[in-house]
Design goal:
With 206 residues, this protein is mostly helical. The protein has eight helices and two strands.
Length: 206
């Protein structure tokens, strides 16, 4: 999970994200999986090389105990819904999935896993490697933006781009202009003071 490096990487873990953003799936299957941000994987690998006590150990790199496809969709809908993307919200009943598996190879493939909630522990990753996984919401948002930027998902008219690339709103210059005018008025309203040269009167005692 996480931002893509190229359009070709969209064939792997980003496939579900692309399907959701393109609204190519009418409902969300009740599936659970283990995920981890690719940037957290890199951090964990570096930590494992730098820590002598990590030698010979195995570490399960996961974001949390379990993550549902519904969570994926909810995060994408929250981020991209206001930008014009219709992410599904309806759950796919298992009875409907049972019927569809006879006609859809993708449903047939995932059907045995529907409703099976598996759990994992990342305590060793956090405790020994010191890796704190970034929020899933950020992972999904960054992945979504990268799929759009690489053309795997079309840009909608309301698309804003990644928050880091958005131009900041123009500053309110009204107050600044008013302050400048006030300062200029104060400067021009100050009375000019002329210094008259001292004169020596004839006949004064020296």
């Amino acid at each position: 999970m996480g931002p893509l490096l190229s359009a070709s990487s969209g064939d792997t873990s980003a496939k579900g994200c692309i399907l959701f953003l393109n609204n190519e799936t009418p409902a969300i299957p009740e599936l659970y999986t283990a995920v981890i941000d690719v940037r957290d994987v890199a951090t964990a690998q570096i930590a494992a090389m730098e820590k002598p006590e990590a030698a010979g150990n195995r570490y399960l790199l996961v974001h949390n105990e379990t993550t549902s496809f519904k969570e994926f969709a909810d995060h994408l809908r929250e981020e991209f819904g206001p930008q014009g993307y219709k992410v599904p919200s309806m759950m796919l009943p298992k009875a409907v999935a049972w019927f569809l598996k006879f006609f859809n190879s993708d449903v047939k493939l995932i059907y045995p896993a529907i409703g099976r909630r598996l759990t994992w522990s990342n305590s060793k990753m956090k405790g020994e490697l010191g890796v704190q996984p970034r929020p899933l919401k950020k992972t999904m948002a960054d992945m979504g933006y990268s799929t759009i930027e690489f053309g795997l998902v079309p840009k909608k008219s309301g698309y804003l781009g990644h928050p880091s690339t958005r131009s900041s709103p123009p500053e309110d210059t009204g107050q600044q202009t008013e302050q400048q005018e006030t300062t200029a008025t104060e400067e021009t309203s100050e009375p000019a003071t002329a210094t008259e040269p001292s004169q020596t009167t004839e006949g004064e005692a020296t």
